[in-house]
Design brief:
Distance between the termini: 23 Å
CATH architecture of the largest domain: Orthogonal Bundle
Structural class: alpha+beta
Number of strands: 5
Number of helices: 5
CATH topology of the largest domain: Arc Repressor Mutant, subunit A
Bound molecules: zinc ion
CATH superfamily of the largest domain: Winged helix-like DNA-binding domain superfamily/Winged helix DNA-binding domain
Number of domains: 2
Radius of gyration: 18 Å
Shape: globular
């Protein structure tokens, strides 16, 4: 999966006329293997350890480019504060964002598809994708640590 993603992203860049520079490849490789949701600073720190000459502007531009080409997804933490993850084909999941510590938790169950057909019928609009992020407090940040079930969704 990871190698296929890397190859597809490389082809995508080349097809759009972008050169496969070392830093671009390093960013793609790092994100393909990343399980979390890093922000620009984290990506920059990681890539700089391999490519000491790289500037944060290059990281910004590359990440923007990968977003534009559909290889990445951005998660909004707060206004102007984004985290990134690989946009795996066919992967459907959403995020819970903790307003306390900024942790991002993935969840896969979503009922939107159940109602989307009805919405399409009523509005005569063809829905191609949807974004759902929920904001709140994680278990560690809850005051008094109210107990919620941690059963896997
Ligand atoms: Zn938290
Ligand atoms: Zn969904």
């Amino acid at each position: 999966m990871k190698e296929i993603y890397i190859e597809t992203a490389k082809e995508g860049l080349q097809r759009q006329g972008y050169k496969l520079t070392g830093p671009r490849l390093a960013i793609i490789r790092y994100l393909a293997g990343e399980k979390g949701h890093p922000d620009i600073r984290q990506i920059f720190t990681r890539i700089r350890s391999e490519h000491p000459g790289i500037g944060i502007a290059t990281v910004y531009r590359t990440v923007d480019l990968l977003l534009e080409l559909g290889f990445l997804r951005a998660i909004t933490i707060k206004k102007n504060q984004l985290r990134y993850e690989v946009n795996w084909p066919g992967d459907h999941h959403h995020h819970l964002v903790c307003k306390g510590c900024g942790r991002v938790i993935e969840f896969g169950s979503c009922n939107f598809q159940l109602i989307s057909k009805e919405i399409e019928k009523v509005t005569r609009f063809r829905i191609e994708e949807h974004i759902l992020e929920a904001y709140g407090l994680c278990h560690d940040c809850l005051p008094g640590k109210q107990h919620y079930s941690t059963e896997k969704m």
